[in-house]
Amino acid sequence: MSRKEAIVSLAIPSENGWELWQRQGGAFELVGREDIDEDGNVGRFRTASHYAFPVLSVFTVPLWVNTDDPALLQGLVEMQLEKLGLKPDGGQGKLMDYKMALVGDPGAQEGAAPRNLVLATVLSSNFKHSLPRQAPQFFDSSPRFYILPGNHVILWKELGRIVVAITRSDQLVYSQALSSHSIDANAVQELKCLLMELSMQGVVSKPAGIILWTDAIAEDGIESLERSLDLKVRRDEKPEPVLPAKSSKLVPAEVALLRLEQKRREKRRIALLAAAAVYLVVAAFLAVDYFLKVRELKGYQAEVAALEPKVGWMGAFRTVWDQVEDTIDAERYPVEILHRLQSILPPKGVGFTSYVSEGPLITIDGVGINTAELNKYGSKVFNSELLDDYEWQWLQLPTVDTRKRDRTATCRIQGKYKYGQIED
Questions:
Q1: In terms of Cα–Cα distance, which of 75, 73, 87, 152 is closest to 115?
Q2: Residue at a domain's end among 251, 280, 301
Q3: Angle at CA 243, nearest 5°, toward 237 and 244?
Q4: Mean pLDDT score of the chain, rounded to an integer?
Q5: pTM strictly above 0.70
Q6: Residue 97 and residue 205 in one domain
Q7: Are 365 and 354 in contact (CB under 8 A)?
Q8: In this structure, which of 106, 170, 282, 392 has its CB flanked by the most CB atoms within 10 Å?
Q9: Which residue, among 42, 254, 56, 50, has the nearest Cα to 130 in the 3D structure?
């Protein structure tokens, strides 16, 4: 594994910005911080392998279900979220995930059907994430990156807002960003209503206490918080983050689109590499084939050179033969060719006006009573076995001479001897 692949880093929201933690020897160490400026903007880290969604950007929904079958849970969770109007649309990304928070309900009435508590997490599609410039690979909500005390209400601050996480046993059963920027009377009232609602749903009973991971409250405020909620409050140092035991399936839409584009680019890259590989293979094959043919040609040239003293006279003899072939080969006598051309003339309607024999070329001018008769004759010439030593072609297709009163047709046909002199 390369050094780059071995680095585990986490971008997680802090009280007034973001922090970058990097795992060193099994524990995380703070290696970077980006705070919110006066305009509400925050810088982005270059890279992080894990990204913690701010509590402000997610909705957590505790749901009771009568099954723990993974094949049924997905449908049940989606159905209940749809009833609440919280089911995300089917666009890009994975905007919903769920985890089993409690197997069995210890507080259920005797004889009641067994049920399990599932905590669904839904990403807000309107939240603009401060993602690192290189998209992370793993995502989850920020409370899951901390070891949360069991059966407690935990308060801390993220991006200027107070957030709350509530546990039952050692499991997270709810989290929410409060509307307040400090733990004031409004925050206390909001917490009171929230705990009352969760108690009515059977999600929590009476928590063991409240833990503060923030200084956004004065000492007299702590006393007011204890009186209002009838819970013991204590301050603790916010712990260092840890990785969740199991990563969520959540993926924001912008990252899903980026991954899709990366897959498309990778497919194009693979296609180009495959085409280049084919090209190189073909080029290599042609190069080897060329080399073999060159070697074969050199071998033939060596054989010819070795035979030259014995057969060198043949070239001069061939030249002489080509010069006298027309004279001694009866098959090529001009009169003989003329006779063959006349032998396939029809009894009437077609004749010659000119016959010229020049070396390997024979040219005849024909005349006929019409173009049809000349076409028939031309077809006989082209297909005659008596004349197949020549390649025949029309120099002039049968044409009616409109200047003549008899309206006769003329044509010109030329034949070239197939076995003419071979050029050196």
A1: 73
A2: 251
A3: 105
A4: 87
A5: no
A6: yes
A7: yes
A8: 392
A9: 42
Single residue among 251, 270, 304 that ends a domain in this structure: 251
Residues 239 and 378 in one domain: no
133: domain CATH number is 3.30.420.40
Cβ–Cβ under 8 Å, residues 341 and 381: yes
Identify residue 45 by its one-letter amino acid code: F
Domain shared by 243 and 348, yes or no = no
294-311 residue pLDDT tens: 898 888 888 878 877 777
Using alpha carbons, select from 206, 207, 228 the residue that is nearest to residue 217.
228
* Per-residue pLDDT reduced to its tens digit, 356-403: 988 889 999 999 988 999 999 999 999 998 899 899 999 999 998 777
Asked if 67 and 202 sit in the same domain, the reply is: yes
CA nearest neighbour of 152 among 164, 135, 136 = 164
CA–CA separation, 93 vs 77, rounded Å? 18
Q: Measured between alpha carbons, how far is 395 from 397 in angstroms, rounded to an integer? A: 7
Cα–Cα distance between 233 and 45 in angstroms, integer? 35
Question: Residue 163, exposed/middle/buried by CB under 10 A (0-12, 13-18, 19+)?
Answer: buried
Side-chain-side CA neighbours of residue 208 (13 Å): 10
What does the pLDDT look like over 237-293, one tens digit per residue?
999 999 998 889 999 888 888 888 888 888 888 988 998 999 999 999 989 999 999
- Note whether residue 8 is domain-resident: no
